[in-house]
Amino acid sequence: MSLPKSDLTKQADGRVTMQLGAVLPKTAEVRDGHLFIGGVDMVDLAHEQGTALYVFDEVDLRDRMEQYREAFHECYPNSEALYASKAFLNKEVLRIANEEGMFLDVSGGGELACARAVGFPMERVFVHGNNKTEHELREAIEAGVGRIVLDTRIELGRVSRIAGEMGKTQKVLMRITPGVEADTHEYIKTGCEDSKFGFTMLEDFAFNCVGDVLNVPNVELVGFHCHIGSQIFALHSFDEAVQVMVEFVARVRERYGIEVEDLDMGGGLGIAYTVDENPSSIREFAECTANAVRKYCAQYSVPEPRLLVEPGRSLVANAGVTLYTVGVMKTLPNIRKYVGIDGGMSDNIRTALYHADYEAVIANKADEPRVEIVTLCGKHCESGDAVVLDGSLQHPDLGDIVCVFGTGAYCYTMSSSYNGQPRPAIVFVRDGAARVVTRRETYEDLMARDI
Ligand SMILES: Cc1ncc(COP(=O)(O)O)c(C=O)c1O
């Protein structure tokens, strides 16, 4: 018996979609009861490629990159957006980021290696990390990266020595902990100095270290960086952080007599994981940061620097979904209904880590209302292994294809092969065509490094 078809809505462009608001990838739609993304039937795709499967809407991905570039260039022409590749990394997403004119934030030698493998222009690469190894620093400097973001005074010595050995001068930013900590809805100013990242402002440590950076050879200080957190809904936190940073820049100018070229405000813009979440748009984020930089530069009488931002989640999270097949079910009366899927904490650790929320639908029943509350549990040997905790779903049956939305960021890059689970393949969909951009891991891959 078919349930009433009441959860659907018609979009302005004529597509029929589920009522899931900003959670949906741009091209999601419902046709004949099936979920389509990029013009591709998710049910057919799951059967062809197997599950678990990561799927990315290429139009959505490119559109967000374009929005970042355009919004920032319009609001503040001297600006660049860096893709924070920790959110989702494979060769294809870096090729697309390059084509879309993004700069790139890499953290660690592996991310840099991937950027080099696709010929990403090194002058557009910024290197992060709170404990970059000697080897990683050497690789970065040798490759000619645009900026190294210094995290400690210890690192300063290493960069200076390595660059000197190579006869180079490395441009650097200093990562500052601005004492503004943001969460999704409010900002708080307590406890946020307690961070392993960057130069603390406590007791003017960061300010005094500027002198050290200016005094060592083979290093050119061109600016400052901060990153106040992730999944931020309260835009005023960014305004607050810009004020702290610009005031710092003004003091540096007065004491050390240098003009700062770059002000890098990091990433952090929040996204919708659930239907009731209403994050700020990329445009609003651009307007807020651009206005703040102009306002505080005028207030503290410093020249306006180049503005940089490093979005990760807000570029890729909603472009990506994960498909699973329902394998088992278990109902505990008055407690919970478990729906067992063929993945879990190995492909999405966020729920087990911090009870992340997600929306899910059954792709082969996409036109039916979500009438049940279920827990989508994984197949791993941990009781906390779940992808959705007590979420709405259509009435499930064995063999159904479940689609979990908003899994494009920090799922694949944080994946594991726990319980010997091969990592899912990654498929990009667009204009009715699907292409595998990262193949599924095999059992042989899992053992490839074993002697
Ligand atoms: C230095 C830095 N930049 C950018 C990002 C990306 O943040 P988000 O994905 O929240 O935009 C992070 C995330 O941890 C970060 O540490």
CATH class type of the largest domain: Alpha Beta
Distance linking N and C termini: 55 Å
The CATH superfamily title of the largest domain? Alanine racemase
Percent of residues in beta strands? 25-35%
Domain count: the total is: 2
CATH architecture of the largest domain: Alpha-Beta Barrel
Q: Which structural category do the helix and sheet elements fall into?
A: alpha/beta
CATH structural fold name of the largest domain: TIM Barrel
What about the largest sheet? 9 strands, mixed
Radius of gyration, whole Å? 23 Å
Bound compounds, each kind once, are: pyridoxal-5'-phosphate
Instruction: Specify the helix fraction band.
Output: 25-40%
| Strand segment tally | 25
Count, helices: 12
Name the average pLDDT.
Answer: 95
Envelope shape: globular
> Low-confidence segments, ≥5 residues, pLDDT <50?
1-5, 184-191
Question: Notable features of this structure?
Answer:
single chain, 451 residues, alpha/beta, 8-stranded parallel barrel, 12 helices, disordered N terminus
